[in-house]
Amino acid sequence: MDSRPFITTHLRVKGMHCASCVSHVERSLQRVPGVRQAVVNLATESASVEHDPGQADAPRLVQAVRDAGYDAEAESEQDEEGDPHHARGEEAAEARAWRWRLWVGGVLAVIVAVLGMTWHSPASAWVQLILATPVQVMLGWPFYRGAFRALRRFRADMDTLVALGTSVAFGYSAVVTFLGGEQVYFDTAVVILALIGLGKWMEARARGSAAAAIRDLMHLQPQQATVLRDGREMVVPVSQVRVGDRVLVRPGQRVPVDGRIVEGRSTLDQSMVTGESVPAEVGPGDRVYAGTVNQTGSFRFEATATGQAMLLSQIVAMVKRAQASKARVQRIVDQVAGVFVPVVIVIALLSLLGWGLLAGQWVDGMIALVAVLIVACPCALGLATPTAIMVGTGLGARQGILIKDAAALERAGRLTDVLLDKTGTLTQGRPGVTEVAALDGQLDQAQLLRLAAAVESHSEHPLGRAIVEHAQERGLELPAIHDFESITAGGVRARVNGQAVAVGRPGTLQEAGVALDETFLARCRVLESQARTVVAVAVDGRPAGLIALADQVRDEARQAVAALHQLGLRTTLLSGDNRTTAQAVAQQLGIEQVMAPVLPTHKQEQVRLLQQEGRVVAMVGDGINDAPALAAADIGIAMGAGTDIAMEAGHVVLVGSNLMNLPRAIRLSRATMRRIRYGLFWAFIYNVVLIPIAAAGWLHPMLAAGAMAFSSVSVVLNALYLRRAWKP
Length: 728
Known about the structure:
This protein is of the alpha+beta class. Helices cover 53% and strands 20% of the residues.
């Protein structure tokens, strides 16, 4: 048995534009001896190749990609962590190029189309030739280049269809024009190029957006770290931090690498790991993760993981793998095109030869050949998907639903499960006061809240801010305080109107000398079992009462969950919080399935496990910690009020925080996918029915162009019907 280790080499691949390109590159790489697996990612224009280094190396893999007709280069670790603005610029360049071509070519195409419909004369043909030629060059060149590349390797794809169909229409029309005729089809050629060019522009924009998620994740890690070596503080690049180094983190700084605290206490925003809005209080022995934000105190920790071993790096890797997905509908279209084009060419040539050799009618044969090629032109095929997507995304945008790709649309109709993150998705994502209890009989609720809020007004802790906001909402005036100080391990105290007031976690106040009886502690335990965070208030050393806080469930959450159930979907709450809290929220909203506590890596595993059972899964989340699961799910749905990274990793973004847009998004996706299927059906059926008629000589090229135009109109009308079919 071969025990040699396999390694993974990452390549940058340029020149891919569709799923068939991806399959060509993958097949070429997999033919290289020693390659075990090749995964090509169209969104990031990259390939990950797992191979035996003794048989295959980076130069050989690069050559395999080039042999397939595409450009490639090996990525180094420095390349992957390079300037994100430069990477964005490269990705935006293709979109800008298509936009420029569409502006110029589109205007000329409209003029040619109008002339073709309103002015029929030899002079009109010459004017159309002059205007159509630059359109053919500007918009047609990318397709000609792709078709030539495919022809050199004896392949056929969508580029071949576009180049062949438009060239025949343009070439035939040019010959007719030079012969003094007026029956030309320049409008057919240029309109096809303009409409399919629009789809290419949309694809280029989508690729740049998908790649941004990975770059933003990578740049959460700071570039420098303060390490302690030989008794001195040294600022070094993060790449030079070694396992075992002692690292210093000050307030406001991000943790540079994974580690374990050895000295100091602080409050750490770990939302990128846990998704929880309440910062965690950390001290000696607690783990910290790269990219998390230190809020209050300074601490030192020992580095336990650097580079690719860090949790943040693992999240990046998971998002990369999850984004390497292929849209089934587009793949089917490309596969059909690969067979369809040679079949059409054979039918067209047989028509020419049949009429010429058997009937001696070479002119009729030429007309039949042109009719076959024109009626087989892929205008409707090119329109079916992008037109429905444009209508669907436009409708969604008006409702605050942003749909980012067709892959999510095609899977929405088969959804069986919806996994819902808790914090920031089902809840507000920030703590709020739920109960104020005065327990000593000397203060009422308002007086207790007023004293606690006065002390917390000088605190930056999120719980303290929530108490102050609650007091302000109740219209309470806060008195002046003196001698404010922070209590070690979580709490604050000060003098208010001559009274010593302390506010903090019950355990913190006990350590500070406040005696809490069993009745008081039992009340705290009851509230904690109800997913509440309890803050105790002491006045002059005696327990005066407590304040309960919790992340508030969104007002519309129960209605949204009920709507998902009406759609026949199974809902599951997936949270990094403790199980007691997660179950309390699930019970409140009517969600039966609960998975908690779950870390980011485990969230993606839960998605994969359900998919292995044959379930079609949607993941709904808002935090960085949800990004891997969002990308891995069949449909990733990100809350627009969450992090940019979650929105980039998701396939659908719900702008704002209205959860009712979740069932609306699923209904819209299903309706849009139905329109795409209907459009593709009609696009194919026209070709299947009319190609034999054209080959038999019963379809004049003019009628062929009209039939093709009608097929395009029917596809557009089918997509526009979505405006009536979908009800928000």
